[in-house]
Amino acid sequence: MKTSQLDLRGVYTALVTPFVRSGEAVDFASLEKLIDFQLGAGVQGVVACGSTGEAATLSPQEYVAVVRAVRERTRGACPCIAGVSASSTAVAAQAAKVAEELGCDGLLVAAPPYNKPSQAGLIEHFRAIARAARIPLVAYNIPGRSGVGFSTATIATLAHEGLIVGIKESSGSVDAVADAIAAVPERCHVLSGEDSLTLGVLAYGGTGVISASANVLPREFVSIVSAFSGGRVSEARQLQLAILPKIRALFVESNPVPVKTVLALKGIIAEPAVRLPLVPLSPASYQAVCAEFSG
Q1: Is 177 exposed, middle or buried (0-12, 13-18, 19+ CB in 10 A)?
Q2: In the annotation, is 140 catalytic?
Q3: Cα 139 to Cα 72: distance, rounded to the nearest angstrom
Q4: What is the pTM of this model?
Q5: How many CB atoms lie within 10 A of CB 256?
Q6: 3-class secondary structure for 114-164?
Q7: Annotated catalytic residue within 2, 63, 116, 140
Q8: What is the pLDDT of residue 294?
Q9: Which of 43, 56, 133, 230 could disulfide-link 96, Cβ–Cβ 3.0 to 4.6 Å?
Q10: What confidence tens digit (pLDDT) does each residue in 159-214 have?
């Protein structure tokens, strides 16, 4: 069993990876500015190179450079979790080793995309990564992107074996959240991966959220979790309801395209550039996002 020093309570922002206008290089100055914005808002941690960070489009060298930059900017301020998502278990294990060497506090591990492994295969995938790196693992259940989800029994096995210290639940199913919380020991934390369900996950006993929208709305998410944790449930509900239109605007097209658009409009990153196969927002979506975030 791994000993966890990773506190998975509160708001962890799934950082975008800013690019220069052409999209051909990472904009590290904008990345630092984004991290400082998050730290100033009081988030409890950050995730580098997850799905919001367009990790699938980064070269191995860029992955190392981005994780290193995020780790160095957050060192002493908040935990840094690195995303690990690869169709090959060997490649994922190697990325895990790199993240550990760079000083990351944990790993967010998705089911291998495209392969559609069995539940037994998912368990072996995590066992292999746990052997490769001695830092805590967080399971990332996002079947819409991975093509396969974690069953409740698999989550329970991973948790009881001590292979994971938490779950980012992004299936969109409140039932899946409730089942996971009921199935894992108290030491294994369940976090919302659906921004609009943050309050619901907290109400079921979850401990926080790993949020894409928090790139733009970090203070709002910190306020929701803080209000709920402080017993101010009505206030938390009002705060969650108030930002629902903004959350929906941030997912009007594939994440992180709208998020990057708003970050650029606000001057937090220099450019809204994404990498193919993602493309900029359509004119209609751009207008809708601008209308929601104007002023």
Answers
A1: buried
A2: yes
A3: 24
A4: 0.96
A5: 26
A6: CCCCCHHHHHHHHHHHHHHCCCCEEEEECHHHHCCCCCHHHHHHHHHCCCC
A7: 140
A8: 84
A9: 133
A10: 999 999 999 999 999 999 999 999 999 999 999 999 999 999 999 999 999 999 99
Domains belonging to the chain, first-starting first, are 10-232 (3.20.20.70)
Task: In whole angstroms, give the CA distance from residue 55 to residue 215.
Answer: 16
Tokens of 204: 């079921």
Measured CA to CA, the distance from residue 87 to residue 254 in angstroms comes to 21
Both structure tokens of 65: 């450079």
Burial of residue 168 (CB within 10 Å: 0-12, 13-18, 19+) is buried
97 contacts 134 by C-beta, under 8 angstroms: no
Please state the φ and ψ torsions of residue 18, each to the nearest 5 degrees.
-70, 140
Residue 214 structure tokens: 């928090």
Q: E-strand spans in 174-282? A: 189-192, 208-211
Q: Which residues pair with 82 in a beta bridge?
A: 48, 107
Give me the torsion for CA of 214, 104, 106, 33, rounded to 10°: 0
User: What is the number of other CB atoms lying within 10 angstroms of the CB of residue 241?
Assistant: 11
How many angstroms separate the CA atoms of 153 and 44, rounded?
Answer: 29
Torsion angle, alpha carbons of 110, 258, 71, 91, to 10: 30
Backbone angles phi, psi at 264, to 5 degrees: -70, -40
Tens digits of per-residue pLDDT, 251-276? Answer: 999 999 999 999 999 999 999 999 99
- Amino acid 26 reads V
Looking at residue 3, what is its pLDDT? 46
